[in-house]
Structure of Oxidoreductase:
Amino acid sequence: MVRAIQVGLGGWGFNWSQEVIPAVSEVEIVAYVDANPEATERVQTKLGASAGMCFQSLEDADKAVDADLVIATLRTDAHYPVVKQALQLGYNVIVEKPFASTVAEAKELVALAESQQRVLMVSQNYRFYPAPIAVQQLMATQKFGPINQVSIDFRRHAPTQGYRYWDMPDPLLADMSIHHFDLMRMVLNDDPVRVSCRTWNPEGSPFAYHPTGAALIEFSSGTVVSYRASWVSSGKNTPWAGEWTMDCAEGEIWWTSRDTRAEGDRPDIVELRPLDGQPEPMKLEDMAYTDRKGTLATVARVIETGKSPARFSSGKDNLKSLALVQANILSASRNGDWVSIEEILA
């Protein structure tokens, strides 16, 4: 059992408190932290937490309880100072994506975690579904031979789905596309080298910044990914992970994942489409924990065993996903000019 302090009890943080953390038997919450007394009062009234478990600062919680892990579920601009403080106090940390606002901050946190010999994990929850795990294995074994290209489409209509962050800078690339960018790296088991991206804000959009975009992303193996995404699409919604076509020399792998709906989640889909045969659905393995529950259970196992499993989204690994986000943002600001990942990481 890993003893944890949760820092950040706002709307999304409380969702962690209510739905995610209690479902992971390997983790026990020993303290809640939020500077807003109303937030800590909510976990007392709705979750039955005692007043003695609730604190307004991490320093106060650190003095009062013994814990192994800090679960950082705050707004993005608070990630860096809180994660830094938690690492300096000697805690392992799991933090929501993106784990820092800049690559420089992220690199500092990675170096600090290494110097403190502590685990720093970024909750890239889309990795914890059966379809991307299966596709990664298919690509590794070259099920249909060498890859030709990858196409990804993401479509959602934010105004009718409860989305309210209209003033967030880069609502597409930084808030949503980071999931897809991270999955690219995972399923291809490769890292990007350069990107070309354009974004725009359609007429009538409630967003202050660009919610729609398209990008070409070139990986070190030569694979090129074509990515198209929109937060204001009036077309048929895709699942949250998007719809992926992996075009290979001897066939195609089509897949989608994280089809969460109000009326109930739908299963992941992977369809194998051989060049000279009929499409065939692939049977996917069940998972004990998916989504954010998967990330939390994984960091608990890493703390307990000292071993990092396959696809572990450490802070060090996630630097390249964050750099991919920043490269796309920079390319879009340059009207689609190619931007190298090396330029961002430097």
Summary: The radius of gyration is 20 Å. The chain has ten helices and 15 strands. The chain has two domains: 2-118, 127-286+323-339.
